[in-house]
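User: I've been trying to design a sequence by hand for this structure and keep getting stuck. Would you show me what you'd pick, starting by listing the structure so we're on the same page?

Assistant: Good idea, let's start from the same input. This is the structure you sent:
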């Protein structure tokens, strides 16, 4: 009996965890890996994987960068010049330049608000509303009859 209860609890736990894993809310590998990594925080693990010698991304000075394609056709960027046979392009990044140009919006003349005529729609559940609905239906019926007569005339001519 105890084994049956334990088995049911395990199945319920799996059924609860599966949608969370599927939607990306829970990562079981990261959960179990955190206990194995000797208490190293996730940020420290990412920092350990990062290449050494990277300077700060944010700078208030002009930065000189070399841009070239390697033998596999992948675009490479570096602050040191590549081998001479690569044909690198030298790019200077100026922190005082804006990459996105501002859009000037033309000023519109202020127009006086026009008086909007309110069209009162009758409530379709009122007596007037029902009369309007019936009149509209009769108008549609008349249009359809007229169209049918025109089609019959066309068919008689064939």
């Amino acid at each position: 009996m105890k084994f049956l209860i334990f088995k049911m609890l395990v199945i319920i736990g799996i059924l609860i965890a599966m949608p969370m894993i599927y939607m990306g809310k829970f990562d079981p590998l990261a959960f179990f890996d955190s206990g194995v990594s000797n208490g190293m925080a996730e940020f420290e693990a990412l920092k350990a994987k990062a290449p050494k010698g990277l300077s700060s991304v944010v700078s208030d000075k002009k930065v000189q960068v070399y841009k070239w394609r390697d033998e596999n056709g992948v675009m490479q960027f570096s602050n040191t010049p590549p081998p001479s046979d690569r044909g690198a392009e030298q790019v200077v990044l100026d922190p005082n330049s804006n990459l996105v140009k501002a859009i000037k919006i033309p000023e519109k003349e202020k127009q006086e608000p026009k008086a909007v005529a309110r069209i009162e729609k009758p409530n379709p559940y009122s007596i007037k509303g029902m009369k309007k609905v019936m009149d509209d239906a009769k108008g549609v019926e008349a249009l359809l009859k007229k169209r049918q007569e025109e089609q019959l005339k066309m068919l008689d001519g064939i």
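That's my pick for every position. To get oriented when you compare it with your attempt: Residues 2-49 form one domain. The chain has three domains: 2-49, 53-102, 119-158.
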